[in-house]
């Protein structure tokens, strides 16, 4: 810290503490410099700084004086100046909404690639060199139009690329105008919830379901009504029997999170019929629709809707990599302008140079190629993973057959000490999660929720063996 | 579109429209292929697709039949299948909150670099080649820990770099833990408003002021109470006389938006004293604090607070470029965990590889060097701009002296037809904005609000002459 800054700090502190009261005439820079054995410029700089800040005033012919500042305020803020932190009051509290958001849990994840963390694609297989080239070329000689505050709702070429991809692969009925690009699926859920829900609105959610959806809905003040999931998807009849009609129904029809179930056609039709009756919104989180390993994928629910009541959400986090932070909504025509305005107020806009690079990545066919490659790879990894689980975890867990997604559920065959199981696996570098925390109502059938897509086959056996040993130790030496 | 997709579409449509009722037995693939003069594989593929989707069921020994689907739902969604859009009902409406957000205006901007758009730094002077290298190197061989969902609230090295920059240049009292990295200043305002305000909360805002702040506050349900700005900053005494005590005071003390006024020390102290009395939050938007051309900058208001009631917001949009989409909050210690959790629910997280590149940019000194260079450049541009305004716009506008920021206010000397003035300048490629829309109460003194920092000196005279001609035409030929 330069000497003049130290000196001005000491003088400022003296003013705050009242040791230099208003009107005090300071010594001339020459005499203070002599007294303190400092250079005269040091003193002049310190005085200048405090004059600029308003603590001192230089009056021609009358030297430098302490200005007249409100005494109470000066002393109230004095504590902070040296100690770095005061304690006069606890400080104002968060809003009720803020406390609610802060208290809504998320599954925490450790940085880096670990078996069997959920939600992670094969980071080892993404073409980062190619991606780096595209991003760098979007930045190096940028078009000024992608550097400012423009293109709210998304860069046009990217919206075109997304719309065309969704129409051809997901049966979504949309134009590029209806696509709203945001900073990740969580932002998509958050802005959709705010735009269609007022505090207290009834929302049907899948139980078990995604914590992020619950967080976004709670932040919007929604009243969450859990609807169980059976082998056909969300159990609408249960919802009708037990809950008031919804303002919004949230679901993951392609690959239910976490159970991996695809909502059947008859359930989809029933859902739309019920939404028509209740005049409800539907938020279709088209989670993991890209990864289906047998048969052809069902189209999106959005394509069955003829009343503009479906808001469709998709993301590049699982098909490229999570830290990309680009996802999108498809909203009904009549809401496009409001969503575009809204996003300028919420700041959930992805950086334009990244959007430009992503448009290139899709338009040049790299995205489709990567998806095809990952579909084959994940099918292999799933096959190998199921094989290893049958070999090493038989008797501990059972895996219902699934043919989609990036993770699998393995139900416990016997009661286990979850906390101990997870801690023991974690100590060996393996991340386990359970279904329990994903339930809002009581969890009737607990199990592990395991991400396999991000785990190279060569590392899989070691990781499954670690899980097996954690089960085994528990069987041999039950605690209490 | 492949033939089998066309065929499956036609059959699906027939099911929806009731022309193929439940239970209908379809012809064998061989006979349908013959009837339609199609290849047999085309028919098999179409049938397979519809079986996968649930429209048809293949019963061993009994051929392929239409499944039993709810009739009402089938016909309700039939319109959408071919025409792409139905019209059975207007569709559900947005929430009251959503309508409010959608109706809150923003000043719109045309893409690209135009004189005298506000909020734009010198895009022609940013070291994009260097920045592209840093970004590409963060992406090319990425550390897996920056690819996933980690580092909520910001990448640690970036938070360290920001904290150290703020402590040394802005007198902010903070640790890296208190820094929350978000996707731009608007996201910073949005998340802060949601975390500290419940619907109906009283908020004092500067009038005139920033539309983005108003938008974020309105989205959070706040009640906006306009407080006029005088030559010392926000007029606290006016607020105390006219408004109920605030839950939050929002201000831009370094360089008031739009008037460019620096809040004086005595006003800062009075503000903190009043906030202590009212137990109010203060949101310090440290807008354009980096650009001060004479004298030394006043430190941040945050540094005077000893009760943890200031939330400090800063951005890289004006010091680097807007589409970077990185900004930050400094929040009191006691709120850090809640803000970090909140940001995982709102998705206002900047891409980690970008954060890593930005940390490098700061740590290697490029950021400080760019700031120094821009400070000199903007001082020159301001000087030249004022000179040109005095030369060409004398009699039309008057410019109060300012020594900071990236834009200037030029008050109208006589009443003008604003709409015509702006349209005529716009037609010549010059963007003008006025103070009027930035006022919540009636605008007592209107004028132009002109961004000069982004305009190269060589282009400035032409642009100022265009403005002069627009004024002149109005003087010569008043409309009506």
Provide keyphrases for this structure.
homodimer, 480 residues, alpha/beta, 8-stranded mixed sheet, 4-stranded antiparallel sheet, 17 helices, elongated
Number of contiguous helices of chain A? 17
Strand order of the largest sheet of chain A: 3-10-9-8-7-4-5-6
What is the CA-CA span between the terminal residues of chain A? 59 Å
Class derived from helix and strand content of chain A: alpha/beta
Q: Quaternary status of these chains?
A: homodimer
Q: Indicate the low-confidence ranges of chain A by residue numbers.
A: 80-87
Major sheet details of chain A: 8 strands, mixed
Q: What is the β-strand count of chain A? A: 14
Proportion in helices of chain A: 40-55%
> What is the approximate shape of chain A?
elongated
Question: If interface size is counted as residues with C-beta under 8 Å from the partner's C-beta, which chains form the largest one?
Answer: A-B, 141 and 141 residues
Strand share of the residues of chain A?
5-15%
Commentary on this structure:
Two copies of one chain form a homodimer. The first copy, chain A, has 480 residues and is an alpha/beta fold. Chain A has helices at residues 3-16, 29-36, 40-53, 71-76, 78-83, 96-103, 128-140, 156-170, 185-196, 211-219, 236-242, 265-278, 336-346, 352-363, 366-392, 418-427, 457-476; strands at 56-59, 63-66, 179-182, 202-207, 223-230, 233-234, 248-251, 281-285, 310-315, 327-330, 397-398, 407-412, 433-434, 447-451. In chain A, the strands form three sheets. In chain A, strands 3-10-9-8-7-4-5-6 form an eight-stranded mixed beta sheet, with helices on both faces. A four-stranded antiparallel beta sheet of chain A has the order 11-12-14-13, covered by helices on one side. In chain A, a hairpin with a 2-residue loop joins strand 5 and strand 6 (233-234). In chain A, helix 7 packs across helix 14. Chain A starts with a helix and ends with a helix. Chains A and B meet through helix 3, helix 4, helix 5, helix 6 and helix 7 of A and helix 3, helix 4, helix 5, helix 6 and helix 7 of B.
């Amino acid at each position: 810290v330069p000497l003049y800054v130290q000196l001005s700090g000491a003088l400022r502190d003296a003013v705050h503490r009242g040791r230099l009261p208003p009107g005090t005439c300071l010594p001339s820079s020459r005499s203070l410099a002599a007294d303190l054995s400092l250079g005269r410029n040091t003193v002049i700089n310190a005085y200048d700084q405090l004059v600029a800040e308003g603590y001192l005033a230089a009056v021609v012919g009358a030297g430098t004086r302490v200005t007249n500042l409100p005494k109470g305020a000066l002393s109230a803020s004095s504590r902070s100046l040296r100690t770095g932190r005061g304690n006069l009051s606890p400080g104002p509290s968060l809003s009720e909404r803020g406390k609610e958001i802060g208290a809504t849990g998320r599954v925490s994840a450790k940085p880096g690639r670990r078996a069997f963390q959920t939600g992670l694609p094969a980071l080892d297989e993404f073409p980062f060199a190619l991606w780096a080239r595209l991003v760098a070329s979007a930045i190096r000689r940028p078009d000024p139009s992608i550097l400012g505050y423009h293109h709210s709702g998304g860069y046009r070429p990217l919206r075109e690329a997304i719309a065309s991809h969704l129409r051809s692969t997901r049966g979504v009925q949309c134009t590029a105008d209806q696509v709203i690009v945001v900073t990740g699926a969580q932002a998509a859920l958050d802005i959709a919830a705010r735009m269609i829900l007022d505090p207290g609105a009834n929302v049907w959610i899948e139980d078990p379901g995604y914590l992020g959806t619950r967080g976004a809905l709670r932040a919007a003040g929604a009243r969450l009504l859990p609807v169980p999931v059976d082998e056909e998807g969300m159990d609408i009849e249960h919802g009708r029997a037990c809950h008031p009609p919804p303002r919004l129904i949230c679901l993951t029809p392609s690959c239910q999170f976490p159970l991996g179930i695809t909502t059947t056609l008859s359930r989809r039709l029933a859902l739309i019929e019920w939404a028509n009756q209740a005049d409800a919104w539907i938020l279709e989180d088209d989670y993991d629709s890209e990864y289906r390993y047998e048969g052809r994928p069902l189209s999106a629910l959005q394509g069955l809707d003829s009343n503009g009541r479906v808001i469709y959400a998709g993301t590049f986090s699982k098909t490229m990599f999570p830290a990309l932070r680009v996802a999108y909504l498809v909203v009904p025509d009549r809401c496009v302008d409001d969503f575009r305005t809204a996003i300028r107020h919420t700041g959930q806009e992805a950086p334009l140079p990244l959007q430009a690079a992503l448009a290139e990545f899709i338009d040049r066919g790299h995205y489709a190629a990567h998806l095809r490659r990952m579909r084959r790879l994940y099918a292999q990894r799933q096959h190998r993973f199921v094989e290893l689980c049958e070999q090493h975890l038989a008797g501990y867990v059972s895996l219902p057959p699934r043919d989609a997604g990036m993770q699998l559920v393995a139900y416990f065959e016997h009661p286990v000490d979850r906390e101990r199981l997870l801690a023991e696996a974690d100590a060996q570098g393996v991340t386990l999660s359970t279904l329990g925390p994903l339930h809002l109502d009581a969890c009737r059938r607990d199990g592990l929720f395991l991400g396999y897509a991000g785990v190279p086959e060569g590392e899989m056996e070691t990781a499954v063996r670690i899980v097996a040993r954690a089960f085994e130790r528990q069987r041999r030496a039950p605690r209490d």
